Amino acid sequence: MLLCALLGAHAVFAAPLGLAALPAAWVDDHGQPFSLRTLQGHAVVLTMAYATCHRVCPLTMKRLQQLQHDYDRYGASAEFVVIGYDPENDDAIAWRQYREQRHLMRTNWHFLIGTPATVEQTAHLLGFGFWKMDQHVIHDSRILLFDEQGALVRVDEASEL
After folding, report:
1. pLDDT score recorded for residue 161
2. Fold category of 2-160 in CATH
C-alpha cells in the first residue's frame, strides 16, 4: 500500500476507526467552517498540535513536511490535517501566522479549531493523550494516516518519528 511505502516498514495498525467516526464540524485557519467529510476520497495525514509548542510540535511538523515531500516524490497526494489542542488560545489568526512563519501554505494543509469538547472527544477517539499545564499543552507526537475511504491504516508514535 502506498501509504505504508511512504512511511517505511514500521507500521502500527490501530483498531478500525475511520474519519467518519470523528466530529465533522471545525473552523479552519481562515475562520471558515470546515467539515472533515470533505476529505472523503483523499488520503489523509492527521495530527494534533498547538501553535506555541516549542518541543514536540516542531518535530511533528518536520515529519509532516517530510511526508509531504515523499508524497510529492511518488506523485501521490494527501490532505494534511492539524487539529489544535488549545482552541482557547489557538484561534484562526494564530494558526494562519503559524502556517505563514513555517511556510506551510499549500492548500492541502488544514489547521483546524474546534470547541474544547470537540477537541477532547477527537483526541480521545484517536488516542492523543494531552493535558494543560500553565500555558503549555503536554502531549506526545502522533501521526495517523487514513486511506481514501477514510479508514485508519497507520499510526506513527513519537518513538518512530
Report:
1. 42
2. Glutaredoxin (3.40.30)
